[in-house]
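Progress note, project year one: complex with magnesium ion.
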Amino acid sequence: MQNNISKILDKLPFACISIAKNKKVLYFNYEAKKKFIFLKENIKIDNIIESEELNEKIDNSFATNKENNINFTPLNFQDSFFDANMVFLENDKKELTIFFTDESLKRGYEKMRTDFIANVSHELRTPLSSIIASVETIQNNANNDKTAQIKFLESMGKQAWRMSRLVEDLLTLSKIESDDKELHFESINVADLVQGVVDNLYNKADKKNIKIRIIKNTDKLNVKADYDAMMQVFINLLDNAINYSKENSNITINFDEETNNDKLYLKISITDEGDGIEKKYINRITQRFYRVDKNRSRMQGGTGLGLAIVKHIIQRHQGELDIKSKVGIGSTFSALFPSQENIKIL
Ligand SMILES: Nc1ncnc2c1ncn2[C@@H]1O[C@H](COP(=O)(O)OP(=O)(O)OP(=O)(O)O)[C@@H](O)[C@H]1O
Ligand SMILES: [Mg+2]
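Model obtained:
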Protein backbone atom coordinates (compact mmCIF):
# COMPACT_ATOMS: atom_id res chain seq x y z
CA MET A 1 0.00 0.00 0.00
CA GLN A 2 1.21 3.45 -0.82
CA ASN A 3 2.54 5.40 2.10
CA ASN A 4 0.21 8.36 1.63
CA ILE A 5 -2.87 6.09 1.61
CA SER A 6 -1.83 4.28 4.78
CA LYS A 7 -1.27 7.66 6.44
CA ILE A 8 -4.87 8.60 5.71
CA LEU A 9 -6.21 5.22 6.82
CA ASP A 10 -4.36 5.53 10.11
CA LYS A 11 -6.43 8.57 10.94
CA LEU A 12 -9.80 6.91 10.30
CA PRO A 13 -12.14 6.49 13.28
CA PHE A 14 -12.96 2.88 12.33
CA ALA A 15 -10.99 -0.33 11.85
CA CYS A 16 -9.42 -1.03 8.47
CA ILE A 17 -7.41 -4.10 7.44
CA SER A 18 -5.76 -4.90 4.08
CA ILE A 19 -5.15 -8.47 3.04
CA ALA A 20 -3.56 -10.36 0.18
CA LYS A 21 -5.26 -13.12 -1.84
CA ASN A 22 -3.88 -15.76 0.58
CA LYS A 23 -5.79 -13.82 3.31
CA LYS A 24 -2.63 -12.74 5.07
CA VAL A 25 -2.72 -9.32 6.66
CA LEU A 26 -0.60 -6.71 4.83
CA TYR A 27 -1.67 -3.60 6.70
CA PHE A 28 -3.96 -2.51 9.53
CA ASN A 29 -4.70 0.89 10.98
CA TYR A 30 -4.61 2.13 14.56
CA GLU A 31 -8.34 1.53 15.20
CA ALA A 32 -8.05 -2.04 13.91
CA LYS A 33 -5.26 -2.80 16.39
CA LYS A 34 -7.39 -1.34 19.15
CA LYS A 35 -10.35 -3.54 18.27
CA PHE A 36 -8.53 -6.76 17.33
CA ILE A 37 -5.62 -6.87 19.75
CA PHE A 38 -3.96 -10.00 18.29
CA LEU A 39 -3.67 -8.40 14.89
CA LYS A 40 -0.20 -8.44 13.30
CA GLU A 41 1.26 -8.48 9.82
CA ASN A 42 1.20 -11.80 7.93
CA ILE A 43 -1.33 -13.40 10.27
CA LYS A 44 -4.33 -14.85 8.42
CA ILE A 45 -7.44 -12.74 8.85
CA ASP A 46 -9.58 -15.75 9.81
CA ASN A 47 -7.36 -16.23 12.87
CA ILE A 48 -8.39 -12.76 13.99
CA ILE A 49 -12.01 -12.55 12.86
CA GLU A 50 -13.79 -15.91 12.72
CA SER A 51 -16.59 -15.75 10.20
CA GLU A 52 -17.57 -18.05 7.36
CA GLU A 53 -19.55 -15.25 5.71
CA LEU A 54 -16.61 -12.86 5.77
CA ASN A 55 -14.30 -15.52 4.35
CA GLU A 56 -16.66 -16.30 1.50
CA LYS A 57 -17.05 -12.63 0.57
CA ILE A 58 -13.29 -12.11 0.60
CA ASP A 59 -12.81 -15.12 -1.71
CA ASN A 60 -15.57 -13.80 -3.92
CA SER A 61 -13.99 -10.34 -4.13
CA PHE A 62 -10.62 -11.74 -5.20
CA ALA A 63 -12.24 -14.18 -7.65
CA THR A 64 -14.51 -11.65 -9.33
CA ASN A 65 -12.75 -8.31 -8.63
CA LYS A 66 -16.03 -7.24 -7.06
CA GLU A 67 -16.13 -5.00 -4.01
CA ASN A 68 -18.44 -6.70 -1.49
CA ASN A 69 -20.26 -5.48 1.56
CA ILE A 70 -21.64 -7.61 4.46
CA ASN A 71 -23.08 -7.41 7.95
CA PHE A 72 -21.99 -10.17 10.29
CA THR A 73 -21.30 -11.30 13.84
CA PRO A 74 -17.94 -13.07 14.18
CA LEU A 75 -17.89 -16.35 16.14
CA ASN A 76 -15.21 -14.91 18.40
CA PHE A 77 -17.06 -11.60 18.98
CA GLN A 78 -20.55 -12.83 19.77
CA ASP A 79 -21.71 -9.49 21.21
CA SER A 80 -20.61 -7.52 18.16
CA PHE A 81 -22.22 -6.77 14.87
CA PHE A 82 -19.94 -5.50 12.11
CA ASP A 83 -20.53 -3.86 8.81
CA ALA A 84 -17.64 -4.74 6.46
CA ASN A 85 -16.99 -2.84 3.21
CA MET A 86 -14.39 -4.31 0.87
CA VAL A 87 -12.48 -2.07 -1.51
CA PHE A 88 -9.53 -2.47 -3.92
CA LEU A 89 -7.54 0.70 -3.34
CA GLU A 90 -4.85 -0.17 -5.92
CA ASN A 91 -5.41 -0.86 -9.60
CA ASP A 92 -3.62 -4.22 -9.61
CA LYS A 93 -6.37 -5.63 -7.30
CA LYS A 94 -3.86 -7.71 -5.37
CA GLU A 95 -4.73 -6.10 -2.06
CA LEU A 96 -8.21 -5.99 -0.62
CA THR A 97 -8.90 -3.36 2.02
CA ILE A 98 -11.76 -4.03 4.44
CA PHE A 99 -13.37 -1.24 6.45
CA PHE A 100 -15.14 -2.44 9.60
CA THR A 101 -17.76 -0.37 11.37
CA ASP A 102 -19.12 -1.66 14.63
CA GLU A 103 -22.89 -1.45 14.50
CA SER A 104 -23.38 -3.17 17.86
CA LEU A 105 -24.58 -0.08 19.72
CA LYS A 106 -27.06 0.84 17.01
CA ARG A 107 -28.29 -2.76 16.93
CA GLY A 108 -28.57 -2.72 20.74
CA TYR A 109 -30.93 0.25 20.58
CA GLU A 110 -32.82 -1.36 17.75
CA LYS A 111 -33.21 -4.52 19.81
CA MET A 112 -34.44 -2.49 22.77
CA ARG A 113 -37.03 -0.87 20.53
CA THR A 114 -38.27 -4.14 19.02
CA ASP A 115 -38.30 -5.84 22.45
CA PHE A 116 -40.36 -2.94 23.76
CA ILE A 117 -42.94 -3.22 20.99
CA ALA A 118 -43.10 -6.99 21.43
CA ASN A 119 -43.64 -6.56 25.18
CA VAL A 120 -46.36 -3.94 24.79
CA SER A 121 -48.19 -6.03 22.20
CA HIS A 122 -47.98 -9.09 24.38
CA GLU A 123 -49.21 -7.26 27.48
CA LEU A 124 -52.17 -5.81 25.56
CA ARG A 125 -53.00 -9.05 23.82
CA THR A 126 -53.43 -11.04 27.03
CA PRO A 127 -56.34 -9.01 28.49
CA LEU A 128 -57.76 -8.39 25.03
CA SER A 129 -58.02 -12.13 24.27
CA SER A 130 -59.75 -12.63 27.60
CA ILE A 131 -62.30 -9.87 26.81
CA ILE A 132 -62.99 -11.34 23.37
CA ALA A 133 -63.48 -14.82 24.88
CA SER A 134 -65.90 -13.42 27.48
CA VAL A 135 -67.94 -11.58 24.81
CA GLU A 136 -68.20 -14.76 22.76
CA THR A 137 -69.28 -16.79 25.78
CA ILE A 138 -72.01 -14.29 26.67
CA GLN A 139 -73.22 -14.23 23.05
CA ASN A 140 -73.24 -17.99 22.65
CA ASN A 141 -73.47 -20.04 25.83
CA ALA A 142 -74.47 -17.59 28.54
CA ASN A 143 -77.20 -15.90 26.54
CA ASN A 144 -79.97 -16.62 29.06
CA ASP A 145 -77.87 -17.18 32.13
CA LYS A 146 -77.88 -13.97 34.18
CA THR A 147 -75.39 -15.25 36.81
CA ALA A 148 -72.89 -16.31 34.17
CA GLN A 149 -73.35 -13.00 32.36
CA ILE A 150 -72.52 -11.07 35.55
CA LYS A 151 -69.44 -13.23 36.10
CA PHE A 152 -68.12 -12.67 32.58
CA LEU A 153 -68.90 -8.95 32.66
CA GLU A 154 -66.92 -8.67 35.90
CA SER A 155 -63.98 -10.42 34.32
CA MET A 156 -64.22 -8.14 31.24
CA GLY A 157 -64.25 -5.11 33.52
CA LYS A 158 -61.09 -6.30 35.27
CA GLN A 159 -59.25 -6.92 32.02
CA ALA A 160 -60.32 -3.59 30.54
CA TRP A 161 -59.10 -1.89 33.71
CA ARG A 162 -55.78 -3.71 33.33
CA MET A 163 -55.41 -2.48 29.75
CA SER A 164 -56.25 1.03 30.74
CA ARG A 165 -53.62 0.93 33.54
CA LEU A 166 -51.05 -0.33 31.09
CA VAL A 167 -51.75 2.50 28.67
CA GLU A 168 -51.65 5.06 31.52
CA ASP A 169 -48.32 3.68 32.77
CA LEU A 170 -46.85 3.70 29.28
CA LEU A 171 -47.85 7.32 28.77
CA THR A 172 -46.42 8.32 32.15
CA LEU A 173 -43.17 6.52 31.41
CA SER A 174 -42.79 7.98 27.95
CA LYS A 175 -43.39 11.51 29.26
CA ILE A 176 -41.02 11.12 32.19
CA GLU A 177 -38.30 9.53 30.05
CA SER A 178 -38.41 12.09 27.30
CA ASP A 179 -38.42 15.14 29.59
CA ASP A 180 -41.74 16.08 27.96
CA LYS A 181 -43.52 16.09 31.24
CA GLU A 182 -43.06 19.41 32.91
CA LEU A 183 -42.50 18.99 36.59
CA HIS A 184 -43.74 21.64 38.98
CA PHE A 185 -41.21 21.90 41.74
CA GLU A 186 -42.45 23.09 45.08
CA SER A 187 -41.46 22.60 48.66
CA ILE A 188 -42.95 19.34 49.87
CA ASN A 189 -42.96 17.77 53.30
CA VAL A 190 -42.30 14.18 52.28
CA ALA A 191 -43.42 12.75 55.62
CA ASP A 192 -46.88 14.27 55.16
CA LEU A 193 -47.04 13.02 51.59
CA VAL A 194 -46.00 9.49 52.60
CA GLN A 195 -48.57 9.50 55.42
CA GLY A 196 -51.21 10.23 52.76
CA VAL A 197 -49.99 7.28 50.69
CA VAL A 198 -50.08 5.00 53.74
CA ASP A 199 -53.67 6.10 54.47
CA ASN A 200 -54.58 5.39 50.85
CA LEU A 201 -53.17 1.88 50.91
CA TYR A 202 -54.27 1.09 54.50
CA ASN A 203 -57.14 -1.18 53.46
CA LYS A 204 -55.02 -3.15 51.05
CA ALA A 205 -52.38 -3.76 53.75
CA ASP A 206 -55.03 -4.53 56.35
CA LYS A 207 -56.51 -7.28 54.19
CA LYS A 208 -53.18 -9.12 54.53
CA ASN A 209 -52.87 -8.04 58.15
CA ILE A 210 -49.70 -6.10 57.31
CA LYS A 211 -48.72 -3.42 59.83
CA ILE A 212 -47.05 -0.24 58.53
CA ARG A 213 -44.75 1.70 60.87
CA ILE A 214 -43.20 5.11 60.21
CA ILE A 215 -39.93 6.10 61.92
CA LYS A 216 -38.56 9.63 61.54
CA ASN A 217 -34.87 10.00 62.39
CA THR A 218 -34.65 13.51 60.98
CA ASP A 219 -36.73 16.65 60.99
CA LYS A 220 -35.35 17.88 57.65
CA LEU A 221 -38.29 16.41 55.80
CA ASN A 222 -38.72 18.96 53.01
CA VAL A 223 -37.57 18.55 49.41
CA LYS A 224 -38.16 20.52 46.22
CA ALA A 225 -40.28 18.16 44.18
CA ASP A 226 -43.30 17.62 41.97
CA TYR A 227 -46.22 16.57 44.18
CA ASP A 228 -47.95 14.18 41.74
CA ALA A 229 -44.69 12.55 40.68
CA MET A 230 -43.69 12.02 44.33
CA MET A 231 -47.09 10.46 45.03
CA GLN A 232 -46.45 8.06 42.17
CA VAL A 233 -43.06 7.07 43.59
CA PHE A 234 -44.38 6.20 47.04
CA ILE A 235 -47.63 4.60 45.87
CA ASN A 236 -45.57 2.27 43.66
CA LEU A 237 -43.00 1.44 46.33
CA LEU A 238 -45.55 0.83 49.07
CA ASP A 239 -47.85 -1.07 46.73
CA ASN A 240 -44.96 -3.38 45.84
CA ALA A 241 -44.02 -3.83 49.50
CA ILE A 242 -47.61 -4.91 50.22
CA ASN A 243 -47.98 -7.07 47.10
CA TYR A 244 -44.72 -8.95 47.56
CA SER A 245 -45.07 -9.46 51.34
CA LYS A 246 -46.50 -12.32 53.34
CA GLU A 247 -49.63 -12.01 55.45
CA ASN A 248 -49.16 -10.91 59.09
CA SER A 249 -45.87 -9.15 58.36
CA ASN A 250 -44.49 -5.65 58.92
CA ILE A 251 -43.49 -2.79 56.65
CA THR A 252 -41.29 -0.05 58.07
CA ILE A 253 -40.82 3.37 56.50
CA ASN A 254 -37.72 5.20 57.75
CA PHE A 255 -36.81 8.84 57.19
CA ASP A 256 -33.07 9.53 57.50
CA GLU A 257 -30.48 12.11 56.51
CA GLU A 258 -27.58 11.02 54.35
CA THR A 259 -24.58 13.01 53.17
CA ASN A 260 -23.10 12.19 49.79
CA ASN A 261 -20.33 14.27 48.21
CA ASP A 262 -20.97 17.07 50.71
CA LYS A 263 -24.60 17.16 49.71
CA LEU A 264 -27.43 16.45 52.13
CA TYR A 265 -30.12 13.99 51.08
CA LEU A 266 -33.41 12.92 52.58
CA LYS A 267 -33.55 9.14 52.46
CA ILE A 268 -36.92 7.43 52.64
CA SER A 269 -36.59 3.65 53.00
CA ILE A 270 -39.42 1.18 52.72
CA THR A 271 -38.51 -2.16 54.29
CA ASP A 272 -40.68 -5.24 53.94
CA GLU A 273 -40.46 -8.79 55.25
CA GLY A 274 -41.37 -10.34 51.91
CA ASP A 275 -39.68 -13.04 49.86
CA GLY A 276 -36.80 -10.79 48.84
CA ILE A 277 -35.14 -10.62 45.43
CA GLU A 278 -32.16 -12.64 44.25
CA LYS A 279 -29.05 -10.52 43.68
CA LYS A 280 -28.93 -11.29 39.96
CA TYR A 281 -32.39 -9.75 39.46
CA ILE A 282 -31.87 -6.55 41.46
CA ASN A 283 -30.45 -4.53 38.58
CA ARG A 284 -33.13 -5.77 36.24
CA ILE A 285 -36.33 -5.03 38.15
CA THR A 286 -36.19 -1.33 37.28
CA GLN A 287 -36.20 -2.20 33.57
CA ARG A 288 -39.48 -1.78 31.74
CA PHE A 289 -41.70 -4.87 31.94
CA TYR A 290 -39.20 -6.87 33.99
CA ARG A 291 -40.84 -9.03 36.64
CA VAL A 292 -39.11 -11.75 38.62
CA ASP A 293 -42.26 -13.85 38.70
CA LYS A 294 -44.38 -12.82 35.72
CA ASN A 295 -47.43 -14.88 36.69
CA ARG A 296 -47.51 -13.67 40.27
CA SER A 297 -47.22 -10.03 39.21
CA ARG A 298 -49.85 -10.47 36.49
CA MET A 299 -52.28 -12.08 38.91
CA GLN A 300 -51.97 -8.95 41.02
CA GLY A 301 -52.73 -6.81 37.97
CA GLY A 302 -49.08 -5.73 37.59
CA THR A 303 -47.62 -4.43 34.36
CA GLY A 304 -43.93 -4.39 35.33
CA LEU A 305 -43.66 -0.66 34.65
CA GLY A 306 -43.97 0.58 38.25
CA LEU A 307 -40.28 0.60 39.19
CA ALA A 308 -39.20 1.93 35.78
CA ILE A 309 -41.48 4.92 36.42
CA VAL A 310 -40.19 5.29 39.99
CA LYS A 311 -36.56 5.27 38.86
CA HIS A 312 -37.10 7.89 36.17
CA ILE A 313 -39.04 10.20 38.47
CA ILE A 314 -36.31 9.99 41.12
CA GLN A 315 -33.65 10.69 38.48
CA ARG A 316 -35.55 13.76 37.30
CA HIS A 317 -35.32 15.00 40.90
CA GLN A 318 -31.51 14.48 40.95
CA GLY A 319 -32.11 11.69 43.42
CA GLU A 320 -31.28 8.02 43.58
CA LEU A 321 -33.07 4.70 44.03
CA ASP A 322 -31.20 2.17 46.13
CA ILE A 323 -32.39 -1.45 46.41
CA LYS A 324 -31.16 -3.92 49.00
CA SER A 325 -32.69 -7.33 49.39
CA LYS A 326 -32.12 -10.72 50.98
CA VAL A 327 -34.02 -13.79 49.82
CA GLY A 328 -36.25 -15.09 52.60
CA ILE A 329 -35.72 -11.97 54.72
CA GLY A 330 -37.09 -9.03 52.77
CA SER A 331 -36.27 -5.94 50.75
CA THR A 332 -35.50 -2.27 51.34
CA PHE A 333 -36.23 0.24 48.60
CA SER A 334 -34.71 3.64 49.43
CA ALA A 335 -35.47 6.85 47.58
CA LEU A 336 -32.92 9.62 48.12
CA PHE A 337 -33.74 13.25 47.30
CA PRO A 338 -31.51 16.33 47.66
CA SER A 339 -32.62 17.97 50.88
CA GLN A 340 -34.07 21.44 50.68
CA GLU A 341 -31.51 22.45 53.30
CA ASN A 342 -28.97 22.51 50.45
CA ILE A 343 -30.86 25.13 48.52
CA LYS A 344 -29.71 28.61 49.37
CA ILE A 345 -32.51 31.13 49.26
CA LEU A 346 -31.14 34.36 47.83
N1 LIG B 1 -40.81 -5.21 47.58
C1 LIG B 1 -40.55 -6.16 46.69
N2 LIG B 1 -40.24 -7.43 47.10
C2 LIG B 1 -39.97 -8.41 46.21
N3 LIG B 1 -39.98 -8.22 44.87
C3 LIG B 1 -40.28 -7.01 44.40
C4 LIG B 1 -40.57 -5.91 45.28
N4 LIG B 1 -40.81 -4.82 44.51
C5 LIG B 1 -40.68 -5.21 43.23
N5 LIG B 1 -40.37 -6.53 43.15
C6 LIG B 1 -40.11 -7.30 41.93
O1 LIG B 1 -39.82 -6.37 40.89
C7 LIG B 1 -40.72 -6.56 39.80
C8 LIG B 1 -40.97 -5.23 39.11
O2 LIG B 1 -41.71 -4.37 39.95
P1 LIG B 1 -42.65 -3.26 39.29
O3 LIG B 1 -43.27 -2.48 40.39
O4 LIG B 1 -41.85 -2.55 38.27
O5 LIG B 1 -43.72 -4.11 38.50
P2 LIG B 1 -44.99 -4.91 39.04
O6 LIG B 1 -45.17 -4.69 40.51
O7 LIG B 1 -44.83 -6.31 38.58
O8 LIG B 1 -46.16 -4.25 38.23
P3 LIG B 1 -46.71 -2.75 38.36
O9 LIG B 1 -46.32 -2.10 37.08
O10 LIG B 1 -48.16 -2.88 38.51
O11 LIG B 1 -46.06 -2.11 39.56
C9 LIG B 1 -41.95 -7.20 40.42
O12 LIG B 1 -42.68 -7.95 39.48
C10 LIG B 1 -41.33 -8.11 41.48
O13 LIG B 1 -40.85 -9.29 40.86
MG1 LIG C 1 -45.28 -2.65 41.18
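The chain has a mean pLDDT of 90.
The pocket of adenosine-5'-triphosphate (ligand 1) is lined by residues 236, 240-241, 244, 272, 274-275, 277, 285, 290-293, 297, 302-307, 331 (CB under 6 Å).
No further modelling is planned for this target in the current period.
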